[in-house]
Amino acid sequence: MSSLRKYNLFTFTSLPAAFWAGVRVVQLDKKSCTTTVKLNWFTKNPFKSMFWAIQGMAAELATGLPVTLEIRNSKQSVSMLVLNNKANFSKKARGRIHFVCKDRAIAEAAVTKTIETKKPQTVWLTSVGTDEAGDVVSTFEFEWTLKAK
Fold first, then answer.
1. pLDDT at 4
2. Greatest CA span in the chain, whole angstroms?
3. Which of 2, 63, 67, 94 is 20–30 Å from 88 (CA)?
4. Which range of residues forms the domain containing residue 64?
5. pTM tops 0.85
6. What's the number of domains the chain is made of?
7. Would you say 100 and 130 are in contact if contact means Cβ atoms under 8 Å apart?
8. What Å distances lie between residue 59 and 26, 33, 42, 56, 76, CA to CA?
9. Residues 128 and 60 sit within 8 Å (Cβ to Cβ)
10. Sheet of 136-148: strands edge to edge?
């Protein structure tokens, strides 16, 4: 089973709302994570664009998956939780939207520091949503808290 398929199976078992909304992981490497979701009858709002919460699920997954993988790679017990988030909506989200988080190195550094110092850490990670034309439709920032167990 491909690794992307495993991550999408993870959404089915652990994030069913995201799975049924059509949120999928389409790219993950040592630098970034990309998720996608498409406007359809289930994801739209009364204004004929994508509901902000659907965008938030895809954006959060794009920032959370790199943290999750860094924790798994460390083979240490570290808990993670969103403490705060900020969002900016710059254009109606229509069609297929891709959310890209290019902060994997920041996630890796935060996990490493958490393990080394045994002190809780917080880190802000950003996910930018673009439409099929490449225009930015929304930008989400999530403050993740990490704590060694």
1. 82
2. 48
3. 67
4. 3-148
5. yes
6. 1
7. yes
8. 13, 10, 17, 5, 26
9. no
10. 24-28, 33-38, 96-101, 121-130, 136-148, 78-89
Above pLDDT 90, what percent of the chain?
Answer: 90
107-130 burial code (b ≥16 CB/10 A, e <16): bbebbeebbeeeeebebbbbbbbb
- Residue 2's pLDDT is 66
What CATH number did the domain enclosing 27 receive? 3.10.129.10
What whole-number distance in Å separates Cα of residue 27 and Cα of residue 4? 7
Exposed/middle/buried for 62, CB within 10 Å: 0-12, 13-18, 19+? buried
Q: Which of 6-20, 60-74, 94-108 has the lowest mean pLDDT?
A: 6-20
User: Two tokens at 61?
Assistant: 């997954």
Q: Which two tokens stand for residue 124?
A: 């802000």
